[in-house]
């Protein structure tokens, strides 16, 4: 079995990038949700580009090899878990600073 280290690192880096892009787009959508006249339409309208970018990115990185897909997904999940931990840490702080 041949392991392509450069391809694996590139797939992981691409997964990190896709994760950052997905989370940034989600953050943008949530920030504007309260001001939207039709929140349900806003949620759907912003979900489609997020999913399209993510799934399209996975497809391009995969290049016909399922191993690259898994490595890319692992990078995506690293970002997701990091953002989740960061959000827990920032929301548990006392907003009054006492």
Cα-to-Cα separation, first versus last residue: 58 Å
What is the chain-wise order of helices and strands?
A: HHH
**Number of DSSP-assigned strands:** 0
Q: Which of globular, elongated, flat, extended, rod-shaped describes the shape?
A: flat
Q: What's the main sheet like?
A: none
Number of helices: 3
Approximately how much helix is present in the residues?
over 70%
Strand content: under 5%
Radius of gyration, in Å, reads: 17 Å
Chain-averaged pLDDT? 90
Q: Which stretches are poorly predicted, pLDDT < 50 over at least 5 residues?
A: none
SSE-based structural type: mainly alpha
Q: What is the compact description of this entry?
A:
By secondary structure, this protein is an all-alpha fold.
Protein architecture, described:
The chain has 98 residues and is mainly α. It is 79% helix and 0% strand. The protein has a domain at 43-70. It has three helices and no strands. Helix 1 (5-31) packs antiparallel against helix 2. The radius of gyration is 17 Å and the shape is flat. The N and C termini lie far apart (58 Å). The mean pLDDT is 90.
């Amino acid at each position: 079995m041949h392991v392509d280290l450069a391809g694996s690192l590139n797939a992981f880096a691409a997964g990190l990038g896709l994760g950052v892009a997905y989370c940034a787009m989600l953050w943008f959508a949530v920030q504007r949700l309260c001001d939207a006249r039709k929140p349900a339409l806003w949620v759907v309208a912003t979900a489609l580009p997020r999913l399209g970018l993510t799934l399209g990115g996975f497809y391009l990185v995969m290049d016909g090899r399922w191993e690259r897909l898994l490595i890319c997904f692992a990078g995506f999940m690293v970002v997701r878990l990091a953002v989740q931990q960061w959000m827990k840490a920032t929301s548990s702080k006392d907003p009054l600073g006492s």
